[in-house]
Amino acid sequence: MEALKNWMIDAANILFDDSKNDLRSLPRSVRLQILLVLSFVWTTVFSLYIFSYTSFAFGWAGLYIAHVGLIFAVYMTFKHFHKAEAQSGSVFKTKNFDPFKIMVIVFVIVFIFVFSKGIEILTSPNPSSYSIPYDGPSKSVFEKWLPFSKDK
Fold this sequence. Notes:
Structural class: mainly alpha
Radius of gyration: 26 Å
Order of helices and strands: HHHHHH
Protein name: Transmembrane protein
Number of domains: 2
Number of helices: 6
Shape: flat
Helix content: 55-70%
Number of strands: 0
Largest sheet: none
Distance between the termini: 74 Å
Organism: Candidatus Pelagibacter giovannonii
Transmembrane segments: 30-51, 57-78, 99-119
Keywords: Membrane, Transmembrane, Transmembrane helix
C-alpha cells in the first residue's frame, strides 16, 4: 500500500510540482495551458471513438468540462496539501476548534451516509412494490396528429 501511495505522490509531483516537472522552465500559465490543450486533444479522441454522431457534441462537452474541472481540482488540492504540510499544525496542538470546520465535517459525514443509503435504496429490489403494466401508447402517431391537421 505504501508503494502505491508513493507512486501516486510521484505521479502528482511530475504534473504539479514546480521543481520536478519537465516543464518547470515555462511560466505557470503556459503549463496550465498545455494541460488544458492535452485535455482537449484526449477528450476529442475519446469522444470520436466512443460517441455516435448525434451525441458527440454533448459527450465531448461533458468530458471536456469534466477534464478541466479535474485538472483544476487536482491542482488546487495538491497546492493546498503542500501549503498545509509546510504550515503543519494540528488542530489538537493549536486548540483551534473552529465551529465551522466541525460543522463541515459533520455535514460531509451525514451527506455521505444519506447518499449511500439513497443508492442502497435505489439499487435494492423491493418485493412489496407494484408494477404498472405498459401496453404501449393509447393512440397511434396519426391519431395524435389528426387534431392539428387540416384534414379533420
